[in-house]
Amino acid sequence: MERPFARATVSEKAEKSLKSGQVRVFGEEVLSVTGDYAQGDIVDVYSKKGKYLGSGFVNDASKLRIRLLSRNPNDRFDGAFWRRRLQYAVDYRKTVMGDDFACCRLIFGDADGFPGLTVDRFGDVLVAEVLSLGCERVKETIFNGLREILTSMGETVTVIYERSDSPIRALEGLPILSGAFLDLRPDPTALFELTLEENGIVYRVNYGEGQKTGFFLDQKYNRQAVARLAKGRRVLDCFTHTGAFALNAAKGGAASVVAVDISDAAVALARENVVLNGFSDRVSVICADVFDYLAELEKNKRRDFDLIVLDPPAFTKSNATVSAAYRGYREINARAMRLLPRGGYLATCSCSHFMTASLFRNMLHDAANDAGVSLRQIEERQQAPDHPILWNVPETEYLKFCLFQVV
After folding, report:
1. With pLDDT > 90 as the criterion, what percentage of the chain qualifies?
2. What is the largest CA-CA distance in the chain?
3. Residue 296 within any structural domain of the chain
4. Is 373 contained in some domain?
5. Is 204 a member of any domain?
6. Which of 103, 135, 238, 351 is catalytic?
7. pTM here?
8. Are residues 45 and 84 in the same domain?
9. Confidence band for 1, pLDDT divided at 50, 70 and 90
10. Is 6 helix (H, G, I), strand (E, B) or coil?
11. CA nearest to 131, candidates 161, 89, 174
């Protein structure tokens, strides 16, 4: 039977990678493409010896020239295909998130077979980010399918808001895009804001303007781990953003919490969240550069805290800047370790895929040596299960989170 798709022949390197489970084919790995196709179409992928390896989105303008969708030659990539794949992703979240299903990541890119697509759920609001041309072309089918599936489960979807405003879009030849795909609110002129609850804490979220989709869901259970250690302790939450770790620590019974972020907007939002949760008597939010703030504490030999949380943004987004990122992580971790008393606690993480788990561990060893301390590991954690990790796709593993006691 003749296939309806153009045919891409790839190198032996790409063949080996795809056979090992990888889903990405780089531009230099495509040897030839025969047949007519438009950018964002689906093409079949074959080895040099003519073996079928799978089918995926093609984009000649992208460094990731082919993003594999399926290895099944019987898949037709029609509405029923996308509906099955969406159902599978939603059912997975319903199972692994349980009571947290109302506030979770529904679609996590390649981990769910939707390359370049993220969809977060905040109650009746879905916030999406589309970073691949292929998913851009089928997003209407995907968004409508998600709404239909959730509605069939008795859930309500009032808003589907697209936050496709990352510079990465330009690498796919796509324009920046932000706005409502669906808006059934009583007042559609109102700001795109909501109130959500996570771990028993309430947050105000501006999903129209906040970072990414408005709130970081991947640390949900890591925040609980910090809360369990916080009772009676003096806590410093660095790079606080919305104040999430600080608020979880306060809910866990911290004696006092100082939250620090360099962004005026983040500080304003964190302060609003502090008031919302009634923690103004124990939580203060400071606008400062964390590197400078930690350096000043160390210079003045301050020992104001016995639990420090380091949750920085990604210091590196490519292999080219890993060395500089390593130094940045090492500096803040060594300073935090020196600021803690013996018996104090450190929660530290990295959200960069390029800062691998082994690199992160090496950095922590170096930082401990710099600080002249030893670390007793309590837990080593990762992203929440609504951000699943595919072992054959290393890019899906990105969040490293460690809890230590300094001894």
Report:
1. 89
2. 76
3. yes
4. yes
5. no
6. 351
7. 0.93
8. no
9. low
10. strand
11. 174
Phi and psi for 217 in degrees, rounded to 5?
-90, -15
User: Are residues 264 and 367 both part of a single domain?
Assistant: yes
Please state at what angle helix 264-276 crosses helix 244-251, rounded to 10 degrees.
Answer: 20
Same structural domain, 262 and 376: yes
Q: What is the pLDDT of residues 362-388, one digit of tens each?
A: 999 999 999 999 999 999 999 999 999
Model confidence over 251-287: pLDDT tens digits? 999 999 999 999 998 999 999 999 999 999 999 999 9
Looking at the fold, whether 15 and 39 belong to one and the same domain comes out as yes
174: amino acid identity, one letter? L
CATH number at residue 62: 2.30.130.10
292 and 334 part of one domain: yes
Reference 310, options 294, 330, 288, 332; nearest CA is 332
Angle of helix 357-371 versus helix 322-339 axis, rounded to 10 = 40
Same domain, 247 and 396: yes
How many CB atoms neighbour CB 71 within 10 A? Answer: 16
Given a cut of 70, whether residue 9 has pLDDT beyond it is yes
Do 268 and 163 fall into the same domain?
no
Cβ 235 vs Cβ 256: under 8 Å = yes
- Dump pLDDT digits (tens) for 65-81: 999 999 999 999 999 99
The domain spanning residue 343 has which CATH number?
3.40.50.150
Q: Which residue type, as a one-letter code, is found at position 182?
A: L
Query: What CATH number did the domain enclosing 85 receive?
Result: 3.30.750.80
Report d(CA 46, CA 41) in Å as an integer.
16
In the numeric block, which tokens belong to residue 101?
Answer: 């299903």
Domain count, the chain: 3
203 lies in some domain: no
Tens-place pLDDT, residues 287-334: 999 999 999 999 998 899 999 999 998 887 778 889 999 999 999 999
Active site residue 135: no
Query: By residue range, what is the domain housing residue 178?
Result: 79-195
Query: Dihedral angle at the C-alpha atoms of 239, 393, 104, 290, nearest 10 degrees?
Result: 0
Average pLDDT, the chain: 95
Chosen domain end from 70, 94, 115: 70
Angle at 277 between CA 276 and CA 279, to 5 degrees: 115
Helix and strand counts by DSSP (H, E) for the chain = 10, 20
Q: What is the pLDDT of residue 189?
A: 87
83 lies in the same domain as 65: no
DSSP 109: G
